[in-house]
Amino acid sequence: MFLLGGSHYGGGGIIAEEKEKKDRKNSTTLSGKELIQLVIFAPVVFVWLTLAARIIWSASSNANTLDNIEGLLTALAVLTIPVSAGLGKIFEVTHKDDD
Q1: Which of 45, 72, 77, 40 is nearest to 59 (CA)?
Q2: What gap in Å lies between CA 61 and CA 1, rounded to an integer?
Q3: Cβ of 89: how many Cβ atoms within 10 Å?
Q4: DSSP 16-75
Q5: Section 64-92 average pLDDT
Q6: Positive or negative, the Cα torsion across 81, 85, 91, 94?
Q7: Who contacts 3 (Cβ-Cβ below 8 Å, separation ≥6)?
Q8: Where are the domains positioned within the chain?
Q9: Taking a C-beta distance cutoff of 8 angstroms, is the pair 3, 9 a contact?
Q10: Which residues contact 16 (CB under 8 A, 6 or more apart)?
Q11: What is the pLDDT of residues 18-70, one digit of tens each?
């Protein structure tokens, strides 16, 4: 029977220290810069996903929308540029943290 810092295990605080190190390793902290980027970037991603879903939904249910889809796809393509850049930046930061 093992107890944290208890009398049944001679190591005492070793288990507690290992558990604390594991908790720190599994936790995530955001800097102010990262938080601001997330707050600004999240709505852009949501608008992009909503527009893409709306285009697909409209084109599959309305022949008139399908005939005039070029303008909608252009709007989606324009929004793809900042979304791709933002996702690239987020994954770049995540990748650097893993190394």
Answers
A1: 72
A2: 65
A3: 13
A4: HHHHHHHHHHH-----HHHHHHHHHHHHHHHHHHHHHHHHHHHHHH-HHHHHTHHHHHHH
A5: 85
A6: negative
A7: 9
A8: 1-27, 31-98
A9: yes
A10: 4, 5
A11: 766 666 667 777 778 778 878 888 888 898 899 899 988 988 898 888 888 89
pLDDT at 97 over 70: no
Task: Name the amino acid, one letter, at 55.
Answer: I
Residue 56, both tokens:
């697909």
**How far is residue 80's CA from residue 86's CA, in Å, rounded to a whole number?**
10
Report d(CA 85, CA 29) in Å as an integer. Answer: 22
Residue 28, classified by CB atoms within 10 Å of its CB into exposed (0-12), middle (13-18) or buried (19+), is exposed
pLDDT class of 98 with cuts at 50, 70, 90: low
C-alpha 59 chain-centroid distance: 29
